[in-house]
Amino acid sequence: MVLAAETAEALSSGWFLENAWLIPLIPAIAFAVIIGFGKRLPQGGSEVGIASMTASFVLACGATYQWIQRVHSAEGHGEEGALGVARGFAQTVLPRASEEGGHSLPYVEPVIRNWTWWQNGGLELTIGQHIDGLAIMALLLVSFISLLVQIYSTEYVKGDRRYTHFFAALTLFSAGMLVMVLAESMVQFILGWEIMGLCSFMLIGHWWEDRANSEAALKAFWTVRVGDVGLLVGTAIIYFGASEWAQERGSNGFSIQAISGWAMSNDASQTVLLWGSVALFIACIGKSGQFPLHTWLPDAMAGPTPVSSLLHSSTMVVAGVYLVARLYPVFFSGLDILDSGVNLIAVVGGITIIVAAALAFVQNDIKKVLAYSTVSQLGYMMMGLGVGAWTPAVFHIWTHAFFKCCLFLAAGSISHSASHHSFDMKKDMGGLRKFMPITFATWMVSTAALCGIPFFSGFWSKDEIIDNAANNNYTVFFVVGLVGAVMTAAYMTRATYLTFFGEPRGAAAGEHHGDDEHAEEHELEVATVGGDMAGHGAVLADADLFASAASGSGDDHGHDGHGHGDHGDGHDAHDEPHESPPRITVPLIILGFLAVFSGYLLAPGAPFKTEYFLEWVEPRGVEVDDVVFTPSGEASGHDETAEAIVADGLVIGTGGFGRAAPLPTAESGEGDKGELTGCGFDKPTDGICFAPKVPHAEFKWSKAMISIALVFFGIAMSAWICLGVYGGRKNPFAGLTKRSRVANAGHRFLVNKLYLDDLYEKVIVRGIAHPIANAAYWVNQHVIDGVVDGAGRRTRKTGVWVYKNVDQRVVDGAVNASGTAASETGHALQPVQSGKVNQYGALLFGAATVGAIVLILTNV
Amino acid sequence: MLAVNFLLLSAALFCFGVYGVIARKNAVMVLMSIELILNSVNLNLVAFALMNDNIDGQVFALFVIAVAAAEVGVGLGMVLMIYRNRRSISLDELSEMKG
Amino acid sequence: MSGLILASDVNVAQNVGFYIIAAMMLVGAFRVVTTNNVVHAALWLVVVLGGVAAQYILAAAEFVAVSQVMVYIGAVMVLFLFGIMLTRATIGHEDEMNNKGWGVGVPVALLLFGMLSWVVIDQYRDDVITELPAERIASSTQRISDGYLGDYLVPLIALSFVLLAAAIGSIVLARKD
Questions:
Q1: Which of these, A342, A415, A748, B66, is most buried using a 10 Å CB contact count?
Q2: Does the predicted model carry a pTM greater than 0.95?
Q3: What is the mean pLDDT of residues A622-637?
Q4: Per-residue pLDDT reduced to its tens digit, A170-210
């Protein structure tokens, strides 16, 4: 009873919001515990990881609950306390700006706390938390998905030789992501960002004994680092731009709140904003796998499937999108979103959608299909942000995380239980729907969500992005979004067909062969590797021989490092594909459920219209009169207690709410871009804006029908083609690449990933680095040697000249002397290089003295 | 007090140090001479700090003291290793760097 | 020079102290670079370093003086004595401590001293150091700490890395293997 009372009190008091910084701290401590003691624990450290993620998730739930309360109390409906939320849920239709006749929703102050850990001169670095709707959404999402993936991993990597390290890295990754999500300052943001990069490297290369894996890890690390330079440069630019403005208001130029306010204010220089946002966006391109730096993401599938699921689909790769969403005012003002017809973010996002979707068509590896699909969906998010559709884009992060995580885990489930660790759809899958009903069902639900079939979650988010692109007059990107939707539907249909329909093939039909995980690499290298595969397969006829034979086969793609030998042993008895154990299927079912219902947080077209996401997450683009910036550096006031985080700067409670200045004009209705006013369009005069006031498209089924029709067209088309190409039905597409040279060229272009890797490795590395080396060598050979040779030749010529023109007796000596002139000079100076320290000292001080005297004499 | 006093004293110490570096054969003695040079510089720094009523000179002097301590540690470690390899620390016998 | 020393605005006691210490230091420095006994050279060096510390006190730099005593006389000299012992230098008189080219050192040092003293006298001939107010002197340690933790924080951190590297480096160098 006491506990319950305390919990209730904590829930109503704002404790969870104030102490949200505990959410990343718990996994960080858990990481240390796992590294330190994990091997000695009965479950190898996984129990610590799961416990920490559970704790984080519970805290995140509490914080979410309180944030919703806070929003409600700011809006003036719903009282303080638990009742507020209950009432909020009861309302089916929440008020929305455009419907309430121009009354904007009030500004909800984020919960900011910080602690200065470095202060030197004017520089002040803080760490802390910045909790607003966006952060709350991401906290909940990351902790939840991490929890599920860790549970799933206990089964998936069971018996792995680096089991403990795997969980340590997963936990540290979650900590890094959570640190970044609630970052209060850019420095903290970078900290979390880099922790994730490091963990990503460790996890992709988890089975590093396999050369392909370690290379993929390195590639991911370096490609992302290219972008990270942009993050550092961008942060520096923004810091120098915003510093003065922020310091006048008692904050500093790293504070995200201050940066947002500055970017929307009159004082921000357009040039600084432009370059700052471009530099930051380069970081987003790298991290979020946007074109043209997307090449690392499919290769990152070399990591274990839970890693792909957690890091490279649902959480880490959205860090770039999160950065844009987090610093949206900077990008909004810097790139003139909504004011100009085209901008960098939308263009890059749009290209990424199409390119990645096209690449997904030719992949045979199920994980690579999903990887390119991820890239493509990240393109949707970026494009959404680029066309001013902030809320739909962020909502897409939310829905995408669930269904993509589910798809990846389903792929892992297939490889774990049905296809003997193969991910090759053409060779080792097919007809699996009969064997794996749960996996099949969750896969289908998530695919439907990904394709954007109505009433599944992906529909609500993706269609909103496309709809808003049209609403904000970005016609080109509207079309791109539609084309992308068709392509998404088509390649997912292909993948589904190959995996679950048709006849079982290869491992799925009970065959064993050694060529499993790297089927695609093998196929690409078929020209060079040749019959390697066949021989490899023959050697490994027996699964018991697997580990030893693979390591002895001398194949570059030996699988000895995977731990699959020991890992696979437990499954030798199962020759038939079968459903996965509960620790795999339960997370799948949960995610599959969410793949349907997570969309109903913002489903304006549903029979019961919901717009919770808009209300709870979107930052309110209203002018705030008196803002309480969190003063940093007051930690010293808290003497030496362990409670280092400043509470002084906190503004919690009703006093800080409801300071919205009513705006003179109503928010524009649909399509009326010309009437845009308010934050982001007019510079604030007295107060501060923290977010631009973006318009929202009105949902109409009539508009959605276009995309729905296109999606179904894509599915039908793809199914028809698949039946022709893979199913052996007679239709025009059967054997098209063999008959048509154009189709073949296109196919090959896609198989080679647009030749981008070749561009980077062959053209850029060889084309730039090698010529420089060659040029240096040429200079060395021709210029320097030439000078030396020329000097020798010239002296010799002089000698000859002397020989011809001077008295014969002098000649021999002259010629010899000139020939050895250089050597003689060297000999003359040789005594100086005595190797004796004292002599060097004498020369040094003597020369310094003489030099000083000369300087003095010339200056007197 | 005259400013010149400190500066001349430090110049004299400096020159003794220079002479020691040039003339001495024993590596340890050369290191001692280097200490003389560093101390003369420190004296200068402190004297200037006094003359200008500016604390920076003293701060720098402390930096130099710390660096000198590091230098002696590494220098004597090197001397020890040379001794171990050659059973001698006479610098005039050390001429591997001879050109 | 002597006339200037006795000028009325000069604190006589301080000057007398300065000259006594300076004379000791010069003798010590001379012996350091001329004695043929390594241990004696080290002991003369102690005299010089102690003299420097005393001069710091005269120059109102107590903190630097204390550091000088602790670091140099306490630590560095011990290191030197260890170095002398470990290299088994002859304890006692040695016939030839100078190398063959030692004669070069004399003109170089004299030339250097001539140049330096000329420059110093030319520039600071008549400068008199005024007495600092007592509270200014008293606060010097505080001001040093402000400097260290303020403007010179980054160099201080860099220096700590230098010391770390030196510690590791000397261990690696001196290790027997």
A1: A415
A2: no
A3: 52
A4: 899 889 999 998 888 888 899 889 888 888 888 888 887 77
Residue A5 is assigned to a structural domain of this protein? yes
Is pLDDT at B16 greater than 90 in this prediction? yes
Domain match, A783 and A741 both: no
Whether A250 is covered by a domain: the verdict is no
Q: Is residue A606 included in any domain, yes or no?
A: yes
C103 touches chain A (CB under 8 A): no
Residue-wise DSSP of A79-122: -SSHHHHHHHHH-SS---GGGTTT-PPPP---EEEEEEEEEETT
Same domain, A470 and A599: yes
Give dist(CA B72, CA A308) in Å, integer.
54
Same domain for A804 and A743, yes or no, is no
Sign of torsion over alpha carbons C164, C167, C173, C176: negative
Tell me how close the Cα of C16 comes to any Cα of chain B, in angstroms.
10
Q: Could you tell me which chain C residue has the CA closest to the CA of A853? A: C115
Which pLDDT belongs to residue C25? 94
A3: buried, middle or exposed (CB in 10 Å: 19+, 13-18, 0-12)?
Answer: exposed
User: Residue A734: what pLDDT?
Assistant: 56
Q: Which of C101, C151, C154 sits opposite A839 (nearest CB)?
A: C101
Average pLDDT for residues C104-128, to the nearest whole number? Answer: 87
Q: What percent of chain A has pLDDT over 70?
A: 68
* Chains linked to A by 3 or more Cβ pairs within 8 Å: B, C
Q: Please check whether residue A331 lies inside any domain of the structure.
A: no
pLDDT at A587 over 70: yes
Helices (H), A344-456: 344-360, 366-386, 390-417, 425-428, 437-451
CATH number of this structure's domain C1-93+104-131, picked from the four choices 1.20.120.1200, 3.40.50.720, 1.20.140.150, 3.30.1360.20: 1.20.120.1200
Report the number of distinct structural domains present in chain A: 3
Given a cut of 70, is residue A509 above it in pLDDT? no
The shortest CB-CB distance from B91 to any of A832, A838, A845 is to A838
Name the residue of chain A whose CA is nearest to B89's CA: A837
CB-nearest to B81 from C60, C165, C173 is C173
Residue A389 shares a structural domain with residue A456: yes
Least reliable range by pLDDT among A455-459, A623-627, A779-783, B71-75: A623-627
Q: Which residue range(s) make up the domain with A816?
A: 765-859
Contact B62 C67 (CB under 8 A): yes
Q: How far is CA A466 from the centre of its chain?
A: 22
CA distance A113 to A182: 10
What angle do helix axes A582-597 and A437-451 make, rounded to 10 degrees?
A: 30
Mean pLDDT is lowest, of A436-445, A612-621, A773-782, for A773-782
Supply the ipTM of this predicted assembly: 0.90
Q: At A111, give phi and psi (nearest 5°).
A: -90, 105
Q: Please, which residues have CB within 8 angstroms of residue A400's CB and are 6 or more apart in sequence?
A: A314, A318, A377, A381, A450, A458, A461
Given an 8 Å threshold on Cβ–Cβ distance, is B39 in contact with C98? no
The 10s digit of each residue's pLDDT in A655-707 is 333 333 333 333 333 334 444 566 666 666 667 777 777 777 777 777 778 77
Cβ contact (<8 Å) for C119 and A856? Answer: yes
Instruction: With CB atoms and an 8 Å threshold, state whether C108 touches A842.
Output: yes
**Among candidates B18, B30, B97 on the partner chain, residue whose Cβ is nearest the Cβ of A835:** B97
pLDDT, position C28: 94
Residue A860 DSSP label: -
User: Which of B92, B93, B96 is the best residue to mutate to test the A interface, defined by the most A CB atoms within 10 Å of its own CB?
Assistant: B92
